[in-house]
Structure formats: C-alpha cells, structure tokens
Write a structure and sequence with these properties.
The protein has about 725 residues and is mostly helical. It is built from 25 helices and no strands.
Amino acid sequence: MNAAKPSSPSSETYSDDDDVQSTLSPRRTSVYREPAGEHEVSARAGSIESLDQIDEDFNRNVAARATGFHGKNSEITWMQRLQRGSTEDSDEYALDPGVDGQNSPASKTHHLSSGNAPISESSYHCDDITVLISEQVDPYEVPPQATADKLFKSYLDTVHPAFPIVGKQTFSDQYQAFSASANKTKINQSWLAILNLIFAIGAKYSHLIQAEWRGDPRDHLIYFTRARILGFNEDHILGHAELQRVQITGLMAFYLMAINQINRSWVVSGIAIRHAFSLGLNLRNANKDVQEASREIRYRVWWALCSIERGLAVMTGRPTSFAETDCTAPLPLPLEEDSLYSIASTSPQVIQRFRSMSSQESRQNDKSRSSPSSSSHSSKVRGSPASSSSSQEMKQAIPPSSALAFGFSMRLNTFTNEVLNRLYRADAMDQSWAHVQGTIASLNSKLEKLQSELPPIFDFSKKQRDQQFMPQRLGLGFFYYSTSMIINRPCLCRIDRKIPNESGKARDFNRETAARCVHAARDMLGLLPDEPNPVGLYKVAPWWCLVHYLMQAATVMMLEMSFRADHMPTEVEEVFNCAKKALEWLRSMADDDEAARRASVLCNDLLHKVAPKVGRNPNEASGFGSHRSQSMENVQSMQDGHIDHSEPAQSQSQYAYTTSAPFQPQIFTSYDQFLSYGNLPTTSGAPFEEMFPTANEMENMNFEDPGFFQGPDQRWFPGSSS
C-alpha cells in the first residue's frame, strides 16, 4: 500500500531545496561542467505549465462564468488536460506543451487557444444549477421537533468534529431552550439563520444516507433560503462584522460546498474570512476579559474557516484570501468541549502547557518554511532539550479524541497551503525545473514527517479494529493522499522530451515522482472496499467532499493510462483496475448526488478513450453506453447563452447500487453495523419568550447556575459582555 519513494536527490544535483542553484557548485572543482538540462529550463517543463497566464475568456458566457477560473492544482484542470489529450494522437504527447513555448511535439496544437475545450466541459460541479426557489418561504417556520432533533444530531455527529464553526456545548444548550420556547418569532434572527444552515446541511446528509426520516429532496434548499432571509440579506451583507455573522457565512460556504456549488462557496468563504479579519480572529487573543474557553472557541472558528478556504483553494486552484504570515492564532487544543470548560476553570496551567506546546510546533513549522539564513534565529527560540522532551511526553499522554484529530488535520491543512504556494502560484514560473524538483523532494519529506507524528489510533495506513475513530482516520487518509497527489502531480507528464541534456538522476526523479503520484491515488482508493456501498461510506467519511477526492484519484489514474503507463509499465493492470474502481464508486453515488452523476459520465467517457492506450477493452468499463446525461445538456444550453433556473428533478439513475452490505474499508479487519440516529432528549424547562442574546452574551452564559432557568418571565441570558 505504501507508495514507492523517489530516491533523494544527491548533493551534487540538489544541495537544498531553498538554494538549488548551488548544485552547480563551482567551489568543489575547477573543471567546468556543462549544466544539466534541468537547470536550463523553467518550471513550465512540468505538468503545471504556465501558471502566469490564462488561455480562456471566463466572462464570455453563462457556462464560463458559472465555472470560473480553475488553477493547475485543481482536478478540473487535470480533467481538461486529459480531455485534450484523449482527442489527439498520444504518440505526439500532445498533453504537454513545449518548454517555454519552444517547438516540440507537444506544442503543435496546445497553444491554439481556439481549439481548446472550455473548462466548463470538464467540470462536474453544480454551479449551473440555481440555489433559488420560486415559492414563498416563512423564515420563522421550523420542522417538526423529531425531524429537527435528527437534523441537528446528524450535523453534530458528522460535520462538527471536522468543522467546529459553532461552540457545540453552548449551541446545544441554546437549541434545547429554543425547542421549549413557545414563540419562536422572538428569537434572534442571526441565531435562527445559523440553526437553519445546520438543518440544511443535515437535510442534505439525510438524503445521502437514505435515512427513513428524510423529507423532501428540496428541503435543504428551503432551510438555506430561510437562513439567507434571516442572516444574509442586504442589511447583513453591508453590516459590520460580528461573531455570528462569521458563523453564518462560514456555514453557508460549507453548505454550498457540500452541494457542489463550488464557485458560490468560494465567494462566500472569502466574505467569512473578511469578517473574521475584522474581528481579529486570525490573531492570538491576549484580552484577559475573554475567558480561556471563549478564546479557544474563537480559535476553532478561525481554523474552521481556514479548513474550508484552503479546501476550496485545492478544488479550484485559486489563491486563498489570506497569507500564512498574517495569522498567529494557535492551533486548537486537543480537548473536547465538554472537558474544555472544566479544565479552563480548574486547571488553567494545563491549558497554558498545551498553548506552549502549540507555540513550539508553530515555530518549528515556521523554521521549516523559512530560508536557511533564518535557521540560526529559529533555533535560538526553539526551546531547551528539556522542554522539548517534556512536550514530547505530554503529546504521548494526550488521549485520542476528535479534537486531537482536528488539530492534526489543521496541521495538514496548513502544510497543503504551503504546497500550493510553493508549486502552483504564478511566481513559481521563475524557478528552474531543478529547483522545482528540489521543492517536491522537500515537500514529500515534510509530508512523511507529518504522517509519522500521527498517534497510532489515527494511522490510516494500517489495519485497525477500532471503530470509534474511523471517521477521523478516513478523513486524514483522504486528505493525506490528496496532498501527496498534488505535490507529485508536476512530474506526471511527458517531461523527458522537453528537457534536452537532462541528467540521469533528474530523469529518474521525474519517473519515480510520477509513480508516487499514481500510488497516492491507488492508496486513496485502497481506503475503500471493492464493492461500492455509498451509504456506508457517507456515514464514516467526509461526505461533503468525497466526489472531489474520487475525481482526483480517477483523473490521476487515467492520466497515467493516457501516457500508455509510461511511468509504471509493470503496473498497467492495477492502474486500469483502480480507474474502474473509482468509476464504479462514482456510479454508485450518482443516484443521490448530481455532482457524482456528472463526474461518473465524464470518467466513463474518458476511460473508454484511454483504455485502448494500455491495451484494455473499453467495454470492461462500460455502464453508460451512449447515454448523454441531462447535466451535459444543461452545460450545452449554458454555452448557448441559456441557463435553467428550475429546480433539478430527483435523479433516476439507471446504474444505482442497492447493496445493503455494511461499509467495510479495505484497511480494517472488522466493522459493526452503524449507530442509529435517535432523538435528542427534550428539555424540561419552561418556554422562554425573550429574544436570544448577542454573540458576546452567548459566550458567557452559565447553564450550570441553578437560578438560570427560573421562569418564562425572566430574561435567561445574562447581559454580561466579553
């Protein structure tokens, strides 16, 4: 299951990834050597090509505007490249341009912009479908209590551990009080908007898992519309920042991503980040008037926003709306919320030790990203060996929890952003290909180090009997392999013909790194059983971005097939089988997910085109025949200047999977049936007629006060300020 590890570049070829030009090293010898070819060509030699220009007008029609620009690290762009190559003679290696625009077999057709297929034809996202509904919506209407409880619990169980945008304990207590309130029209509108967004996300999930209690397929749009009326109208958009507004826009961005409205999600996420910056959530909070627990909740809100903003950067290939150097908020504490409040009040020294440990890790990460000239300064502030040993012992003593997994996920999230900044931004074009190779080697080493620091319970590469933390393992596994594909993707191309006089070591590095990219896709698919069971997978994996992960893996496999398995000729059968497996999973998910349906149509078409290039029968991957999906017809109508504003009908896929087998990931030896979704206990308190509090009052309420619930005529949220 482990990917083949490229040999580390020798000091003669790469002395350091931050100073690759020193590899010529005239100080070592007085004999002049002709520089190897990899030092003479730019980063355009790799699959990333030209990062500093575009070859499409993204404002030309509705389809182009709905899809928007996608950068070179997006699987949508990979799919576009694959479509180009599948329609051209593969012997000409037309998937890749020449170096710096020079004449080469690859440059014969690529630079003819008029002949390039638009990016919208390679997109499986649903930005062409409207999120508006035609009927009138009562923003204060709520679902039946039993349904509301299950929607709320679904969100808390599946989304909140990976996206803690609200304080779980505080909001749960508020929800119980809200459920007992007789007049729900007097509740704070921003709080109601947050609740409706939680309902919208839960409703989308209920249909993916085919829950018996699910409602109408369009319910999630109803909840979203209520939230938009209550908390994202013109007054709120132009209003000043507040914590609830950050939560509303953050949840809205997450919901839009979950329904594959990626372009809209990216825009709303940027608004959320702007609001967060206005409140200083990106910085360390030293205000003594804010309780330690409240500081931690605010830090988690910030990191939740970081997770979705950077996730969208991976999906779209667009830059994030903030720089790493602008952020000093510490990583989240490895403590669950139910213990956070008690520890903060009774053992503040424990919190400080965790904070100190987090600061030390941050300094080490900063050192790894800095230039060699700053290393001496970083080593001075790193701390004594005794303190490092103490921190290590403390790390090992931390019990596993979803909060601990979230912290590791955010470290990987931050590292992935570093990958994008170093390999896929416009200024990367100024580097030589040798420098890019050194950067890739360095990033691979850092990624391996991150994996080695995972607690054993979160190790996704080994068989485990544990079931409690399966969602955390799968989430980290998908994320890890996705990042590995992005790191090594620049070498997955026909690169050897584009670098004259390339050294043997550099050529071997290219080939091994390309194989590493394919192996990462293979290992990601290895997390899944061979028999598709989407309902089971949705229950234990990050359901809101599974299609994205599967499309990354499928596209990498088909890219290698389009190159006639040039990088790994002895593994043709495995590559083909993995591509088929990804397609089968997408087909199985297509009945309840429009994005999966579109993705499966795209993959099926391309797999039929590339399978003969590795000597495989396209019929082995059949399942659609000449079927033309409605989504493809919608795209065509958009390109003609029209867009369908009607709500999509429920998918009636002909290739639905109805297996009832429990989800059994390949890397686990056993797994029981899933936990059932029971009702939340209802509150026994009296109904409350007063308005909900402001964001500041919410953070400081004390539900443990015996006099807190005294009656319906008493304001039950104290008017203190943080």
